[in-house]
């Protein structure tokens, strides 16, 4: 909007020199016509530059609106006991998904992995599905309420596990399951 109004002020600096504006604008009443034209063009240039700067470098907190993502409601390290195995999660968080969706992400450092490790889909499923089962059965994704982008309903649309290298926290594989498919995926872990 800043850029649009700035362009209008640069192209038509006399846009407000008519009607009711003649009596209400302090700038119109105090400046000569030439100075008012310079003032409006300068204001237009400032607005264009301000709009461009907001696009290039959005203020903190608004960057998630630009990229559609960003971490929301970050949780710290946790230990989950799943069956006879203990999983040490380094963090959990929520991310925006398409539409009003939200992804609940569990970050799990795979003990045997390095930053150069490449996992197949089946290997990733073997590591991630126990965590997805635990999160689903214990309603871990329901810990926080994330406000919707629009409307009134925002719900967790997917459960994801970021499998990371314990050395440098580099994401090796993201295994994501839509919440509507969790029970099917748990019953058929290796079907595509």
State the shape. elongated
Rg on CA atoms, Å: 26 Å
* Domain unit count: 2
Termini distance? 46 Å
Strand content: 15-25%
Provide mean pLDDT, rounded: 78
H/E element sequence: HHHHHEEEEEHEEH
Sheet with the most strands, sense and barrel status: 5 strands, mixed
Salient structural properties:
single chain; alpha+beta; five-stranded mixed β-sheet; two-stranded antiparallel ribbon
Task: Detail the topology: elements first, then pairings.
Elements: H1 2-11, H2 21-24, H3 26-30, H4 33-56, H5 63-67, E1 71-75, E2 78-82, E3 85-89, E4 91-96, E5 102-109, H6 121-137, E6 156-164, E7 171-178, H7 182-187
Commentary on this structure:
The protein is α+β, with helices and mostly antiparallel strands. It folds into two domains: 2-56, no CATH class; 68-187, no CATH class. Helices cover 37% and strands 24% of the residues. The strands form two sheets. It has a five-stranded mixed sheet, with helices on one face. A hairpin with a 2-residue loop joins strand 2 and strand 3 (85-89). Helix 1 (2-11) packs antiparallel against helix 4 (33-56). The chain is elongated. The two termini are 46 Å apart.
């Amino acid at each position: 909007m800043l850029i649009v109004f700035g362009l209008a002020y640069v192209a038509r600096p006399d846009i407000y020199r008519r009607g009711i504006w003649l009596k209400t604008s302090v700038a119109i009443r105090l400046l000569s016509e030439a100075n008012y034209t310079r003032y409006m063009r300068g204001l237009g240039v400032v607005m264009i530059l301000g709009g461009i700067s907001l696009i290039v470098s959005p203020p903190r907190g608004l960057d998630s609106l630009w990229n559609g993502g960003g971490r929301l409601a970050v949780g710290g390290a946790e230990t989950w006991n799943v069956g006879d195995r203990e999983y040490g999660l380094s963090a959990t968080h929520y991310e925006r998904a398409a539409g009003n969706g939200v992804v609940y992400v569990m970050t799990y450092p795979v003990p045997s992995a390095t930053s150069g490790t490449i996992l197949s889909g089946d290997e990733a499923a073997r590591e991630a599905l126990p965590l997805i089962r635990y999160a689903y059965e214990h309603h871990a994704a329901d810990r926080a309420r994330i406000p919707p982008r629009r409307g009134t309903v925002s719900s967790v649309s997917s459960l994801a596990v970021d499998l990371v290298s314990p050395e440098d926290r580099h994401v090796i594989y993201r295994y994501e399951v839509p919440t509507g498919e969790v029970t099917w995926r748990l019953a058929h872990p290796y079907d595509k």
